[in-house]
Specification:
Structural class: alpha+beta
CATH superfamily of the domain at 43-132: Immunoglobulins
Radius of gyration: 32 Å
Number of helices: 15
Distance between the termini: 38 Å
Oligomer: single chain
Largest sheet: 8 strands, parallel
Strand order of the largest sheet: 41-40-39-32-29-28-43-42
CATH architecture of the domain at 43-132: Sandwich
Length: 989
């Protein structure tokens, strides 16, 4: 992230009470009827099994009471209970539960994926792998009295079964949890109830496993007849929500505002969204012209980048809108365009397309890493004031040529993914890191050289088996707007006071950050930005009038002299109009962070098209993923509706679905606190962004963003989805359920904030993992270009031993280990990370690293340098480098450490865990302890070999004990493992 306003001091942490509400854990008020089911005292279990899915002619229950023996295969035959259900009541004696499997008596089994079913006592249902507690055959609604047919929606909660617990008016409550409802249609459950002479009933709903919807403890009042209950809304005399809908025959409106813009032989086509009585699901783009004839392409968004066209050729584009029923709108008016000459660029790359969890990440500030071409070095308007000029250290110094030259250094460390700062053309006064985008469609020339374009970097990395993750910004542009979308004109008078600041206009000159404008002698020329005359269409208030204030130099300040969200200078359609007041409020998603960061109105279709079209360009070049800056400042519903689908659709379109599956998007959700939920706000918590939406919102994106914010804040932290994707089931790996994954992974802000020591980070990280869709994809780092642990403004300075311990944890625990450039030698430890233009960059945590890389290095494999000479050889000989190299060798050799789920069950030890990954012929199981001793119980018997020492332990009783290896050291005992990996070093020994 780029520079931002200072936030207020952290408030004291408050323990949050469980929130009761739509899906709280509070059961209903049942008067004198006890809430417990009969399972609490019963020694029998009545097991109901759902047969519709299996369609077996007969069903057997094969079981063993807890602590007892299994029945003889195939078990006991179950009897018909009601439509689609069979049942069996079994005597458990004194047992309080049973293990069970089901079969058809002819060798076909349902054993819960090899885990068996763990059932309790009382009434139990097993339906498609889901265990619940109710009688699905009770109360079939065939009596002669009054009846109530109740439909209940689980579309929001995602419940896989539903029960209704009720009492007719004047009557008694059913025994909790009530009676099972029947699946009526997708998202709806149904039950018809006999209520005798009563004309209404009280009711609450539950999922059969203790999660209740009791209308915020008020219960529901439901009349006789047909009633629907959805999101706490009761609708009497309702229509059947599962009845066949009238066919949709209405076509969408024709798209309008179609534009086509050519750059060389590529064309970006965009248009305004069409409207429909239900919803537009896609667009059909038709291109005519050239020698290839008519081409029709399906597009999911309202922007399309058409590449590889013929030179100097006329093309025409029309667009039709299509709804889910296949109704197609009339064609739009045609947009015509003529292509230019083909750009002399290298062939686009192809993403490597492998599981991103296999690739440790090295994060570089490109302009501060290594200078391969001094001709593109540039200072800036603050270069002298900051002290950089005196140090001969221009802020734009490193470049792609330098990065290409040192890819072997990064490979020798063992990293196979490089996260680089944004590449788009920037425009701010003290900007070298890339977060102040000006022309999102142009690579900043200060980073490129002849033979070392951005495309060349991508291709060179891929040739070495290394990925490029591009830092991208959707939230904001530079203070000077975004070229091609909107750039503001500011008031500027070149009088004796301000002539130093406002450059004389040169109508024929275009700013690119690199080319020196001849009149001013500057590459950071600003003559194109200002005007003394009020521009046509000006919306800035009090243009050119003195504000009454003075600058630091004592100069008169004028209105509209400086970009501001509240001045009216930026159009409301494209930019937000306010400053953030509450960092955990809705305004943090719809206001400016800082005067340098003009906040896009990301709910506007034109803005969306501009950004999607820009980032399509870099996807087409073959980048392997996006690190998303300031992701928390855009509503999740906008990510889920617009930007994330556009990213994955484009990758799939260009490179196939497998490449899209492994295109790695990870977001910076800046939750700078030490608790699980960011001061109780789910909308501002990192894990929140890993999930799809749970309900439909308004078709208008701006309205939807408010609806989504309010809905999720109301549900609160106690009603967010949970996941077992990161966790083992006992000792077994299970297939993750990614069906509700949004497409955005996250930087592990909680571990980052708590990396004051490794134990602290480990404990906090584990605590959040159940609320992340899949924490095995979390990007884990200690510090970065923004902050150190606990929101420290300095680079980590905990000491070499502590760094070794941090690395040992990061490289073996779940998630993807990530290192900020130079941390392998504790570069700039304790130095202030960012002081803006008030001090030279050489004194900060963003100092130039190239002096440590001088010389030559070659690496043909990860984690090993084939040769090195000069200063880079000294760098590679440092103790943390040796430690890092061996950790990377170990991690690469053990799949469980890359993609495995983990568990701490049955394990003693402060930082100890087991991990397993199973896929095809691969079955990797590892026991890990960092720094301290550990005992692992209940593990599979067999031969375990430590990857660090080569020590071999044979386990026959399910227990393995490990002595403390010492701070920074670790032990990795692998079942049927490869043996010792690498050679002993200063920490791993």
């Amino acid at each position: 992230m780029s520079r931002r306003r200072q936030r207020p001091p952290l408030r004291a942490l408050v323990a949050l009470l469980a929130v009761t509400g739509l899906f709280g854990l509070t059961p209903p008020d049942t008067g004198s009827v006890p809430l417990e089911t009969t399972a609490a005292t019963s020694t029998t279990a009545t097991v109901f099994y759902y047969t519709k899915t299996k369609n077996w002619p007969t069903t057997y229950l094969h079981y063993a009471p807890d602590g007892g023996s299994w029945t003889t295969v195939p078990g006991v035959r179950m009897e018909t209970a009601c439509t689609d259900w069979v049942k069996k009541t079994v005597d458990l004696g004194s047992a309080t539960g049973l293990q069970a499997t089901f079969n058809n008596g002819s060798g076909t089994w349902d054993n819960n994926g090899g885990n068996n079913y763990a059932l309790g006592t009382g009434t139990i249902t097993v339906k498609d792998g889901v265990i619940a507690h109710s009688d699905p055959c009770a109360d079939t609604g065939t009596g002669s009295g009054n009846q109530a047919t109740v439909y209940y929606s689980t579309a929001t909660s995602g419940w896989t079964t539903a029960n209704i617990h009720y009492a007719p008016t004047g009557g008694s409550w059913t025994t909790a949890p009530g009676v099972g409802m029947e699946n009526a249609c997708t998202g709806w459950w149904k039950k018809t109830l006999d209520i005798g002479t009563a004309t209404s009933l009280k009711a609450a709903f539950n999922n059969g496993n203790g999660v209740w919807d009791n209308n915020n403890s008020a219960d529901y009042t439901i009349p006789s007849g047909t009633t629907t209950v959805k999101d706490r809304t009761v609708t009497a005399d309702a229509k059947d929500p599962c009845a066949a809908q009238a066919p949709d025959t209405q076509a969408p409106t024709a798209p309008t505002g179609v534009t086509a813009t050519a750059t060389n032989t590529s064309v970006v086509v965009s248009w305004n969204p069409a409207t429909d009585d239900t919803a537009v699901t896609k667009y059909q783009l038709t291109r005519t012209g050239g020698t290839k004839g008519t081409v029709v392409t399906d597009v999911g968004s309202t922007v399309y980048s058409d590449t590889g066209l013929e030179e100097k050729t006329d093309y025409a584009y029309t667009v039709k809108a299509v709804d889910a029923a296949g109704n197609t709108s009339p064609a739009s008016a045609a947009a015509t365009v003529t292509t230019g000459e083909k750009a002399p660029a290298p062939a686009a790359g192809t993403p490597l397309g492998t599981d991103p969890r296999k690739d440790p990440i090295y994060f570089v500030l490109t302009a501060r890493f290594y200078d391969g071409d001094s001709s593109n070095d540039r200072g800036g308007s603050q270069d002298v004031k900051s002290g950089n000029a005196a140090n001969d250290d221009p802020m734009f110094r490193g470049d792609f040529k330098g990065l290409v030259a040192k890819l072997d250094y990064i490979k020798a460390l063992g990293f196979s993914a490089v996260w680089i700062t944004p590449v788009v053309l920037n425009r701010s006064d003290y900007d070298y890191h890339g977060y102040h985008g000006y022309d999102f469609y142009k690579v900043d020339p200060r980073l490129e050289s002849a033979g070392a374009s951005y495309q060349d970097l991508i291709n060179a990395a891929h040739a070495k088996g290394m990925k490029i993750y591009q830092d991208v910004v959707y939230n904001h542009s530079s203070r000077w707007g975004a070229k091609g979308l909107f750039t503001p004109t500011v008031y500027g008078v070149r009088d004796s006071q301000w002539s130093w600041y406002y450059d004389e206009k040169n109508e024929g000159f275009e700013y690119d950050g690199l080319t020196v404008e001849p009149k001013s002698g500057k590459s950071y020329y600003n003559g194109d930005l200002w005007s003394t005359a009020e521009p046509s269409g000006n919306t800035c208030v009090n243009w050119g009038k003195p504000t009454g204030g003075k600058s630091a130099e004592g100069y008169t300040l004028y209105n509209c002299q400086w970009p501001s969200p509240t001045s009216g200078m930026f159009p409301k359609a494209y930019y937000h109009q306010c400053w953030i007041g509450n960092w955990e409020g809705e305004d943090s998603r719809s206001c400016w962070l800082h005067e340098d960061l003009a906040d896009f109105n990301t709910e506007n279709a034109t803005v969306q098209n501009y950004l999607i079209g820009a980032y399509d360009k870099y996807i087409d070049m073959g980048v392997d993923g996006f690190r998303v800056d300031t992701a928390v400042h855009i509503p999740r519903v906008t990510w889920n509706r617009r930007f994330l689908p556009a990213i994955y659709d484009r990758v799939a379109q260009r490179f196939g679905t497998d490449a899209a599956k492994n295109f790695f998007v990870f977001g910076e959700v800046g939750a700078f606190v030490n608790d699980k939920w960011n001061r109780g706000s789910v909308n501002h918590s990192a894990q929140f962004f890993t999930w799809k939406e749970r309900k439909e919102y308004s078709a208008d994106d701006a309205t939807a963003s408010i609806e989504q914010y309010n809905y999720e804040e109301q549900l609160g932290t106690g009603n967010q989805p949970t996941s077992t994707n990161a966790f083992l089931s006992g000792n077994s790996y299970h297939t993750p359920d990614r069906s509700q994954f949004s497409g955005m992974n996250i930087i592990d802000m909680r571990m980052h904030m708590n990396f004051s020591d490794a134990q602290n980070a480990y404990s906090n990280g584990k605590d959040s993992d159940d609320s992340v869709n899949d924490a095995t994809y979390n990007v884990v780092y200690v510090d970065s270009h923004d902050y150190g642990p606990n929101k420290s403004s300095t680079r980590y300075s905990g000491g070499t031993d502590a760094w070794a311990e941090n690395m040992s944890l990061m490289w073996t625990f779940r998630g993807i280990p990530t290192l900020y450039y130079g941390s392998e030698i504790e570069f700039q430890k304790g130095k202030q990370i960012d002081c803006g233009p008030t001090c030279p960059l050489a004194t900060t945590g963003r100092a130039y690293y190239g002096d440590h890389l001088a010389g030559s290095v070659t690496a043909s494999d990860f984690g090993k340098a084939d040769s090195a000479s000069g200063e880079v050889a000294t760098t590679l000989a440092q103790p943390l480098v040796k430690h890092l190299q061996r950790l990377n060798l170990i991690r690469r050799a053990i799949p469980a450490l890359q993609s495995g789920q983990y568990s701490t069950d049955g394990i003693s030890g402060s930082m100890a865990f087991k991990r397993r990954y199973t896929s095809g012929a691969t079955d990797s199981f590892a026991l890990v302890t960092v720094t301290g001793d550990a005992t692992f119980t209940g593990i599979p018997n067999g031969t375990y070999t430590d990857a660090v020492t080569g020590d071999v332990k044979t386990v026959s009783g399910g227990t393995l004990s490990v002595a403390a290896p010492g701070k920074g050291n670790l032990r990795v005992y692998v079942l049927n493992g490869p043996g010792k990996i690498g050679t002993d070093g200063p920490y791993l020994k």
